[in-house]
Here is the input.
Amino acid sequence: MDNLQTPLLVATLLAYVLAFMFYFITFIYSKESFLNYAKILTLVAFLFNSSLLIIRAVLINGLPLRNLFEFGLFFVWAITLVFLIIQYKFNLPVAALFVLPINILLLLFLVNLDVTIRPAMPALRSKWLIVHVLSAVLAYGAFAISFALSIMYLLKERLMKSNPAGRLAGILPKPEILDELSYKVIFVGMPALTIMLVTGAVWAEYSWGRYWSWDPKETWALITWFIYSAYLHIRLRGWKGRKAAILSILGFLAVIFTFLGVSYLLPGIHSYA
Amino acid sequence: MIKFLSSIQLAVGLIAAIALASVFATLYPTVEVFSSFWFRGLLLLFCLNLLVCTLKSLPAVFARLKKTPANVCGERAEGLEISGHQSVEALTQFIKEKGYKVKMASDGDRQNVLAQKGILSLIAPHLLHLALIVVLVGGYLSSFGVEDQVACFVGEKAEVPASVAEGMVIEVNDFQTVLDAEGAIENWITNFNIYFNDVKAVESGTTKVNAPLKYKGISFYQKSYGYHHLIEVTGEQAGVYQIPDQKIFKLEDKVFNITQTIEGPLVRFFKGHEIVEEKMVKNGEKMEFSEDTVLTYVKTYPFTVLAVKKDPGTWVVMTGFLLMTVASFFFWTGRYREIALSFEGNKAYLTVSCKNKALRDEILAEVRSKLKAGETNG
Here is the structure.
């Protein structure tokens, strides 16, 4: 089963690339008949992604949440899950044009990582890991979707001014819908991020004897939390639309930096993640 | 002043300042930011902002929670024709089925109904603010805490640093590296007794990674471990030596070290930096170096290093964390919405309160259509 990992990872990546291409043809070249194929391919990619996670879970005899590769796989899985919900609940398949590239880029990064299974260090053998990392996965998945919706918002706003009759302006939903949906998704992600921070701190107290160490990873997770807190507060003051979209984009950049930037540029006690 | 302290502008400004300071601190780790006076000042101001904002908005929240059905016949209410009593019951039943908490009150011939949903999400932001204050207060109390460490060989006693607990001594009974079914390290466990002023207070307590031992406000964490090796040598360098793990030792013309592995002690002989020979040894095993010089491996001396901590703020912070988690779940219970109805004769007056306009319109349409359906059925 170990040998299946790399082929499945590549198959997942290819399925996402194909799905993106079909969505692209559907919306940019107005080939409506391609939409169903695009949706099926996204589901296939999601199934490959899920299978890979299941294989990994069987191989390590637990939830695969212990290192950058495993978290990355779950991250892509959560982004797709939130996208599928958005696609069907709000009938927004066009969001795929902005969501799937995030998955493709993340998978391109993951295929370069070592997939070898290594035993987990004692500190990681904790029940807190499951709730800590799963809440991170949910939060980051939601923020990725909000990021895509915010990009769509800014693009739509720009196109409405420069080329309102253009094809792209026509396929993007109304800015108000994108703005409200982005807010809704952040509203789901933010409590998950709070739970991630809290459970991480409680776990650190049990494991390292310190609930907070100002380690780069936890500090950047807190910075992300502050950015989305600011987002939710400014909306109370009626700051919607453009300003909110920019803050949402900034928030997701902080997520990416917490996930990748900190791991490579600012080493700390989270060396395994 | 109160207005300024409770303002969202101040909250957003402080959030931005703390976030930027944190970014700076991670990029320039040599600059002391988090323990600086100005950073603590920002946190204090943030705490004040949260407190004033919460205290200011709590009365309105309590008023909402205690709100009773009232007459809503007025300009803001939408007036609808209904067919009488049957519609009132059908509608309240319909609202209840939608998950609303319904309160009813009569006012003469008028029947008033108040239906509320999402009360927990109404409480959530205020609970989260209070939780953050508790965490910050706990963090402040933690600054009065002390932490240190104590190293002790198995079978021996060691004093816990007086800064953490005066008169406390630990006696290590055992230290084990626990392996899982695949042979990987699962945990490190120290079994020890605690003496307080020479009286045994804890018999055979254990601490391991992710499961510290707590005694009277002092926590013991499994921090590190190591080994020394006891050897007996005959000949020119005769004597009993205690060698730290992996420390280079020279006997006659041979250079070696002893490394504790999962299988046991391993003796490695070197020529320069190269390993020329390796040999696993057991307790009592002899190794001949020359006719006179014989090395006997006596035994392994494991030691454990425990971090010890006394922190008066931990339980306060943990309480804050618990409240934060509860508040997070409250956020997920859906937006607060309120339906107020007054039935008077064959007319119903309806108002719907919800911050989300689309949701408000949806609820209005639902209630309106139900009232019309009731009219048809009646």
In short: Chain A touches chain B at residues 119-123, 125-126, 128, 180, 187-188, 190-192, 194-195, 198-199, 201-203, 205-209, 211-212, 214, 216, 219-220, 222-223, 226-227, 229-230, 233-234, 236-237, 262, 266 (CB under 8 Å). The two ends of chain A are 24 Å apart (CA to CA). Residues 1-120 of chain A form one domain. Residues 20 and 97 of chain A are 6 Å apart (CA to CA).
